[in-house]
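Sample log: Jg16011 protein.
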Amino acid sequence: MCFLRDIPGVLVILCVLVSASHALGEVINGPCDIFFQDVNNLTLNCSRRNIDRIPNWPEAMKNVSNQDGHVLITFFNNSITNVTELPPVPGNRVAISFKSNKIIEINDDAFNNVHRLVYLDLSNNRLSGDVLRSEIFQGPYKDGVYKSIALETLNLGNNRIHSLDRYLFQYTPNLTRLYLNNNPIEILDHVTILALFSATKLEVLDLAKTDIDSIPLDAFRGLVNLRQIDLSGNKFVTVPESLGLVGTSLQYLTFNNNPIVELNDDSFIGLTNLVELEVGENNYLEEVKRSTFTPLKSLRVLHLCHNRNLRYISHNAFRGIKDKWTLKEVYLDDNNLSELSTDLLPWNKLEVLGMTGNNWLCNCDLANIVTNQEAGTKFKAGEIPYCAAPMRLNGAYITNITASFCPTLDTTFAAKKGFSINLKPKHILWSILGVAAVVGIGMICGLLVNTIKAVYKKNTRSQPIRYFNINDDTNFA
């Protein structure tokens, strides 16, 4: 894999060369081909020659300038099993590819004569961690010590590496790009971390598809220049907290194809200088919660694509950074989204927006985003999303929907916040008379009730009981 962002122009040519040689179907037997672009640029193509050992260089190699010469040598797709000591290579910057051989061993001092080697591709071979040792990269022996070589890019992808020797990079102080992808590392053990510690100038680290599920908190301590890391295709259930240690330098993070279920306000803590974030192909990712992207104060490009179960993004996912908006490109393609909040982000400040491959419900909110907030002008040509619902809009471009089917409110009436009564004088008079009539009728009814009660009590009152003393009554004498 060629990271064009990081490889100088001469190394991009190597990538093109390797790709072109890969396209050749037949196997060629014969000497290597040599091409001169000019006196300072030479390409030696030994790809697909069915060779099993390093050949001698053609005499024409000597014509390259040692001061300004760029030399590209490729042994792509041969049967080499052992990299022996290479003959001297002229030139100021040398790139060599052993990609797709059967290498199981590399001799000590293999690159001793190529101390201007800046790019080395050993990917897609059979190398183990035990084979990789510092002696391989020793430079010329002088004044009782081995000198360093100029190596800047080392590709060890697609091998059988479980661990790295702690002294592996002892003679490569200029190493800035290291590719360990597609190796069965599983655990970043202590010696591997010590090896990374020694690569203090490292800028690019590829750990994709290495079966790791965690990164020790101190794994990146001291890597103050690390600006790009790829953690795709691993077993992370959360974004590693250890990334915060390189938050001031890290600019590019790729976090595809991991079994995470959610992104939240802890996911990207400390990554204040991240410029580009890619979170895609995470089949278990369901939601992006509140304040997820708040720490990313420098983010310019967000790829949140191909997460087939992602159904919800909180309207506060970008909380705290909307006032100082830096995002220019947002890609939400091929998820399981149906709705977005109108205040998710300032849509009109974007330059590019991708939303294809979702099940969009073309409702009033989406119409507001597309038309009123100008999101519809941010789609690339040929990448305009479709409506999935309601049924009458199924298959229509979302840029063709308008707010005409949404309720239109009387904004003049809606603006009145208080409650008021607007009555004419005659209405007030009638209201007073009505109240007086009700009160009068109530009083008359009350008097009638009291009168009836008084009459009833008078007619039904009992006679008083008379008492006498039987001792005084003569009838009983």
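Observation: Helices lie at 9-22, 190-198, 364-372, 411-414, 425-459.
Observation: The first helix runs from residue 9 to 22.
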